[in-house]
Amino acid sequence: QKEVEQNSGPLSVPEGAIASLNCTYSDRGSQSFFWYRQYSGKSPELIMFIYSNGDKEDGRFTAQLNKASQYVSLLIRDSQPSDSATYLCAVNLDSGGYQKVTFGIGTKLQVIP
Amino acid sequence: GAVVSQHPSRVICKSGTSVKIECRSLDFQATTMFWYRQFPKQSLMLMATSNEGSKATYEQGVEKDKFLINHASLTLSTLTVTSAHPEDSSFYICSARPAPGTPKRSYEQYFGPGTRLTVT
Description:
A: globular
């Protein structure tokens, strides 16, 4: 079982719609969770960070975390063509003082004008 | 936001030669830097964690004698790919985690722009 699982997509949504991206993780000791956006040929940029169960909203983005079910999701409201990118889910585990962040394969999002 | 630079951004080298990639945190001190490799249509794979002043911690399957990492200061880490081969061609990305007590968010990794390595 992969440590961090994501559907590679592509996920296609029309402009203005809500895009829903999902991620599951295997290690129950994971403590913090990230969503990164990566454009083709570029390095990732952080868009959301969450560590408590529930929802966290930042502009058009909402991250949802459910530690009991071991999933974290990202909702993008009013999707724009500029949101088209690969979204990487990342999970941070503190193992005896050594922190390791593991990335999922990423979900490719296509927003259709 | 924090700025992390990488140099060079793109390099082409012949098989058997060595290539050095630099990663610098420009506006914060980073006690920890990470080196990732990303093949086309694949996720970021952590190669090693670099701590200033100590030996790097390599992930399973990564040859430490082939991928030499030096973290000599709080703002600079280098990755040297020794005796490069075509299968080493990839996108190498570093990230830096701010030192505790700095104004930057210490939970975040700030990524460099990446280095595209092509070995012919």
